[in-house]
Amino acid sequence: MQDDSFDCSGGVDSGLANSAEVVNKLAIATLILAASTLLSRVLGFLREVFIAYLHGATAATDAYYAAFTLPDLMNYFLAGGALSVTFIPMFSAYLAREDEAGGWRLFSIVATTMGMLMLALTVVLIVFTPQIVPHLFPGFDDPAQMDLLVRMTRIVMPAQLAFYVGGVLNASLMARQIFWPSALMPLVYNLFIILGGVALHPWIGVEGFAVGVVAGAFLGPLAIPLWASRKSISYQFRFAPFDPEFKKFVWVTLPLMIGVSLVTVDEWLLRYFGSMHESGAISWLTNSRKLMMFAFAVIGQAAGQAALPFFARLYHEGKEDELGQTLSASLQRVMFFSLIASAGLFVVAEPLVFLVFQRGAFSVEDAAITAELLMYFSIGLAAWGAQTLAVRGFYAREDTWTPMIISSVVTVAALPAYWLLNESMGIQGLALATSVGMVMNVVATVGFYRFKGHSLPLKPVGLGSLRGVGLGLPAALGAWLVLEQFDFGEGALGYALSFGSSGLVFLGVLLALIALIKPPEVEVLRAKIARKLRRK
Known about the structure:
Blueprint: H1 4-8, H2 12-55, H3 59-66, H4 69-77, H5 83-96, H6 100-127, H7 129-136, H8 143-156, H9 159-175, H10 180-204, H11 207-228, H12 244-258, H13 262-274, H14 281-316, H15 320-347, H16 349-357, H17 364-378, H18 381-395, H19 401-425, H20 427-451, H21 459-485, H22 491-517, H23 520-535
Helix pairs in contact: 2-10, 2-14, 2-15, 3-8, 3-14, 4-6, 5-6, 5-9, 5-14, 6-9, 7-8, 8-11, 9-11, 10-11, 12-19, 13-14, 13-19, 13-20, 14-15, 14-17, 14-18, 15-17, 15-18, 15-21, 16-17, 16-22, 17-20, 18-20, 19-20, 21-22
GO cellular component, one term: plasma membrane
GO molecular function, one term: lipid-linked peptidoglycan transporter activity
Membrane topology: Multi-pass membrane protein
């Protein structure tokens, strides 16, 4: 639906110019968050490398990864991980009306009321952890492993309070297009996990990493946005569960509390089914999935984080066509780069996994299984990126019910795929089920977005996807030929040569094709970066 003022202004060119300006700002914000995400994921890799080196893939590491499930469940059902999705559009609406005081009143109510609820629930869950976690992991039949899981779950639980309060603070910053705290928070968080795990390893083993999680959560996701907001924040203690604005916040957030999104549930399903396999299965699944999520975070997650404040502002200003054009352009770029990355990740999976993980207690067999799982996970990389962006078209409108219903239906529909593929292919089937489920999710989300009549040109997205496949496949073929024709040997040097050689060939073929074809996705980014550098 077009805005009448847009029509009457005779401003198609003006509208496109404004849209281009928004896309430019969005691209810059995306690049900032992508750079931060890259650094954060590098630290995350180092964290996993230290865990693998010190502890391998064992019952203890399975318990460590499983210890996050109950805290994640609490965070999920209080929508702590979705604060940016629900709070940013509401806070942005106040800013668009030039009512910043009203925005801070909403902030005070949400931070106080939800913070108190999370504190109470944290205490209750810590008390009843031994009764709850056995039902989440029926395959953990070793009493020592279960005791370790209970201890680490209790250690990690308080971190969720820091994530929630810090999340509200950070959402208020992002609504004002202040992104540097979002860039710094995960870096500090991951750094303290590593420090805790390494420093405490001689005394408490893998539990040291759990202690690092709590320290990192309070010093990163909480302390950094608190410091960044110190001069601008206007907070008053307001416990007001019956306030009309809080009721509206709960209504918008409720779908994210009661819905079951495959984006989140996927990891729980992998842990649940993984607990029924041999010791180390959860660790193999976790390590391979995190390698795939590294690429997703740099390409898709950063774009999604940066996009929502812009989408929300465009919607509240009544610029429906510009919102559609901006969403389409973002999806086009994400699909293009994600499909290229998917092809590259698939072909270099084995040398990459061996280079990153195969040392210390992490055996050759552990690395081989992890590499195979990564291939299956990489198939769904583009779907992860597209889903993260597509769903924000709904969130910008403060419509959380529609995507909740879509994602819940898709999750239920995908459950048989997880069960069947697990039964027929083992843990490899679980990795493939993740990719299949995410493709189902994004197709349903985009399809229903268009069905509701929202503006979203799909032709640019389709052309960008075709260009991504057209560039990614030849580059992957070149890298595969290198791996097939040359034996680089084993050990760290051999793995480095194998990964480096295949990666260079992939990159060389890709750059040659880019120079020949000049895809608009690359040209647009190149122009934006050049303009940014010229300003500096």
